[in-house]
Amino acid sequence: MSTKHNANQTELNRLAKKLVELVGIFRQGRPASDFHWWNSAAIFDPYHGYQDGQPIFEEIVQGVIKLNPNMLSEHEVQRRLKFDFLQMQTIKDREAQHAHGQSLVNEAKQFLHKLAEFEAWQDVDFLIANLQQGGEGAKLGRVTFITVAKEELDLWRKHVKIFWPKEASDVQVIARVRAPGDQHRAISYARAQVDLVLNILRAFCFPFGRYSDTWRVGVIGDLGVAWSYTPMRINNKGFPTRIGASLALIELRKDILSKLEKPQWESINKLILKPESSLSSMESKLLDGIHWLAESTKPDTNNSRFVKISFALETLIGGESKDEDLKVRGITAMLAERAAFIAGRELDDRLAIDRGIRQYYGMRSNIVHGGEGDASLDDIDEFGQLVRRVSLSLLERLDELGNQIGDVEKLEKWVKVQKYTLSEHNSKEVS
C-alpha cells in the first residue's frame, strides 16, 4: 500500500470523526428540519448550536476537495454533505433511520470515501459568436470547434430564449471541452480552457488596430450588446442614426489558423496541453503575456489598447533579475535588448526591433505617466505586430533552448552571452 494511500486514509478517518461530531451538534441543537436552514445560501443560519458547526463543516468540505481536487467543486461537496448525509442523519422526521456509535462512524467513512474516489467527465459546450469553420472541425489544446446545425441551434434558442437577445450575433460554431469533475467543476475547467484558446487565437491572429472592432468573436454572453452599431440622434430629429462597423463573420481556417505555420501551432498546442505544475516560469509569463495581447484586440479606447500591448510586452520578457546592471540601463533598454535578441536573427533586424520597442515604450510612458499623447490605429497595429512577433519568437526560443531561458534570471544571462559572443567572422578579425 502506497504512502499516499495511507495518508489519504488517515485524512479520511479524521474527516469522518469531524462529520460524526457535526451530526452530534445538529442533533443537540434546534431541529434541523427547518426549511430555511437547508435552502439558505449559507448553510448555517445563526440558530442555537448551528454556528458551532460552521467551521467544522467548512473543514470537512475543504478537506475532501484536497483529496480529489480535479473532480470535486465546493458547491457539489456542500450539496452532498447537506442533503445526502446530514439531512438523513439529523432531521427529526427520519430519526428511526439515524445511525449511532460505530455504525455512524462507518457510514461517515463510507460516504467520504465515495467523494474522495468520485470520478466523472462531462462534454461542456459553449456557443461562439461570429465564427464559422470553413471546413472540418478543428481542435486546439483541449477545445474542439464543431459546426452547429440549425436544428440544434433552435434547441439552444428554445431552452435559453429568456437570455437570447433579439438581435443575437451570428452563431455557427460550438466550442466543446471534455472536462473532468462534477458539473460545477467541469464548467469551471471547460470555461478556462475555452478562454485560453480564444486568447491564443486573438493574440496571434486577430487584427490590433484597423478592423479590430469588426472581429467580435467570442463566447455568447461575453460580447455585451448584440448590436454592431451605436444608436444616435442628430439635431434632435425623431429618428435614430446608427454608426459603426459591420461585424465580420470570421472563418476559423482561412482567417485565423492560416496566419501561422503548422510547426507554430504544434508548439502552441504543446504549451497549452502542459500541466500547469510543469510550466517553467518563462512559459507561465508567455501565457500571461498572451492574455494581455488578446485583451488589446477587444473593443476599447485607443490608448487603453496601446497600453495593454505594453503590459503584454512587460509580462512576456520583463522582470528584473539580480543583475545590478539593469538598474543602470532602465526598463526600456532592458525590454528593447531582450526583445531584439529573442526575435532578431541578424544585426539590422535586432537594431530595428530595439528602435521600435524604445519608440513605442516611450509612447506608453507618455500616456500612462504624463497623460499626454494619443495612440493612433496605426500605432496600435504596428506595436501589436511587434509584440506578437516577440511572443511567437519567445515560444520558438523556449522550444529551442528549454531550461536555458526558464526564468528571468536565466533569460538575462542568455541575452548577455548573445551580446558579448563574437561571430566567427568577427572572431577572425580580432585574432
List keywords for this structure.
single chain; alpha+beta; 3 domains; 5-stranded antiparallel β-sheet; disordered C terminus
How does this structure look, described?
The protein has 431 residues and is α+β, with helices and mostly antiparallel strands. It folds into 3 domains: 3-116, no CATH class; 120-227 and 244-273, no CATH class; 276-431, no CATH class. Helices cover 58% and strands 9% of the residues. It has helices at 3-28, 35-39, 50-67, 74-90, 101-116, 150-159, 183-205, 252-256, 262-272, 281-295, 302-317, 325-329, 331-343, 347-370, 377-401, 408-420, 424-430; strands at 121-129, 131-132, 138-140, 143-147, 171-180, 218-219, 230-232, 241-243, 250-251. The strands form 3 sheets. Strands 3-4-5-1-6 form a 5-stranded antiparallel beta sheet, covered by helices on one side. A two-stranded parallel sheet has the order 2-9. It has a two-stranded antiparallel ribbon with strand order 7-8. Helix 3 crosses helix 4.
Characterize the largest beta sheet: strand count, sense, and whether it forms a barrel. Answer: 5 strands, antiparallel
Q: Percent of residues in beta strands?
A: 5-15%
Mean pLDDT: 85
Indicate how many domains the architecture comprises: 3
Q: What structural class do the secondary elements suggest?
A: alpha+beta
Low-confidence stretches: 40-46, 425-431
Relative helix content: 55-70%
Strand elements, count? 9
Distance between the termini: 66 Å
CA gyration radius, whole angstroms: 28 Å
Order of helices and strands: HHHHHEEEEHEHEEEEHHHHHHHHHH
SS element count, helices: 17
Strand order of the largest sheet: 3-4-5-1-6
Shape: globular
